[in-house]
Design a protein that fits this description.
Blueprint (H helix, E strand, L loop, with lengths): L8 E6 L11 E8 L2 H9 L7 E5 L5 E2 L4 E8 L4 E6 L3 E7 L4 H10 L18 H4 L2 E2 L2 E2 L4 E8 L5 E5 H4 L16 E11 L9 H10 L5 H15 L7 E5 L5 E2 L1 H10 L5 E3 L5 E3 L1 H7 L6 E2 L2 E3 L6 E4 L5 H19 L8 E2 L1
Parallel strand pairs: 2-5, 3-5, 4-20
Antiparallel strand pairs: 1-2, 6-7, 7-12, 8-9, 10-11, 10-12, 13-19, 14-16, 15-16, 17-18, 18-19
Helix pairs in contact: 5-6
């Protein structure tokens, strides 16, 4: 059977199971993609001619405000392997459709530590570089070595080293100039053999102390999982996309003015002299934790997470988000920027 024969296009395809908010939206056309070549074949198929394209992995970082009038490419590329190793590091490649959390778990099973602080982050491996995902003192920019992708317009297979990915705080080339132009097919990570623990964050340190276990990669992984489960709702139970807003970064002078007005404002000094504010603290201080507009709500334990209590639409969540942004701007003079892609 020729590869094109294995492509299956579905019309009026339901996306509820493909976005972690659980919004009941549909795509005009959808196609499950299992290889790099299929990305090209799907976009060039006559049935997709003239349609907008959306590459969709786990759907953990998207807010659908309406049906998608185009072709959704459902990423299902699988596989993971040790590419090479030397005296300093292991190089591990994972296909774009692999579950991120399961991939991190597997690296520890294989005794290749380094990603344990990023446990339980939802989504797929292919989405990780787009957001430059990070948690508990680690971002993947520290370990990313290579991204393989397909140019959806030309069909060319392209490789991006870490510099070309232009990774920043919840930002990358793929989120800006390369947005929806490239479909990531695999990501390779460099994991140093000289492992060092990252356990300075207060919540994580408390959990590790309570467990009184040796400070190993697996112990950190387990502690991160426990902390995240205690603080964050399970998308399978309560629809959400994790942290909805980025932590805003302000200059030192702005932070000093804020601290004079709000002595307990939470901020983290950055290497360039600026200060990263805790968006959750700002939202909580404005009184939004636990509040709702219709069925869209701010989670009662984590103000940074917006949830779908059942039956909310993407527009409902955006209405809530904009109300929060307005209050934070009015009280603190700080603009909050959403993390998820708004469609």
């Amino acid at each position: 059977m020729h590869l094109t024969d294995s492509l299956h296009f579905a019309s009026d395809y339901p996306l509820r199971a493909h976005n972690t908010f659980g919004f009941d939206v549909r795509a005009r056309l959808a196609c499950r993609v299992e290889t790099a070549e299929q990305f090209v074949l799907a976009t060039r198929d006559a049935r997709a001619a003239g349609l907008s394209k959306l590459v969709l992995g786990g759907g953990s970082n998207v807010v659908f405000t309406r049906d998608f009038d185009g072709l959704v490419l459902l990423v299902a590329l699988a596989g993971k392997r040790l590419v090479s190793e030397d005296a300093e590091a292991w190089h591990i490649e994972a296909a774009a459709g692999e579950s991120w959390h399961a991939f991190v778990d597997w690296t520890l099973d294989m005794n290749w530590p380094g990603l344990e602080n990023l446990a339980l982050i939802p989504g797929t491996v292919g989405a990780a570089p787009i957001q430059n995902i990070g948690a508990y003192g680690l971002e993947i920019s520290e370990h990313l070595a290579l991204v393989r992708a397909v140019d959806l317009a030309s069909g060319e297979r392209v490789e991006f080293d870490a510099a070309a990915c232009q990774l920043g705080y919840r930002d990358s080339f793929f989120k800006r100039e390369g947005r929806q132009r490239f479909a990531i097919t695999s990501v390779t990570f460099r994991l140093p053999k000289a492992w060092r623990p990252r356990a300075d964050y207060a919540d994580l340190a408390r959990e590790l102390d309570a467990r009184a276990a040796a400070l190993t990669p697996r112990a950190i992984f387990d502690a991160v999982v426990a902390v995240r489960r205690a603080k964050l709702p399970d998308p399978l139970v309560l629809g959400n996309a994790g942290s909805f807003f980025k932590n805003p970064i302000v200059d030192a002078a702005t932070f000093q003015i804020l601290r004079e007005r709000e002595p307990d404002v939470v901020g983290y000094a950055q290497a360039d002299g600026r200060v990263k504010l805790a968006a959750g603290w700002l939202i909580d201080r404005c009184g939004w934790k636990g509040r709702a507009i219709g069925q869209a709500a701010v989670h009662e334990r984590q103000a940074l997470v917006l949830v779908n209590r059942g039956g909310a639409t993407g527009s409902d969540v955006l209405t809530l988000a904009r109300a929060i942004q307005a209050d934070v701007q009015h009280r603190f003079g700080v603009a909050l920027e959403p993390e998820p892609l708004i469609r």
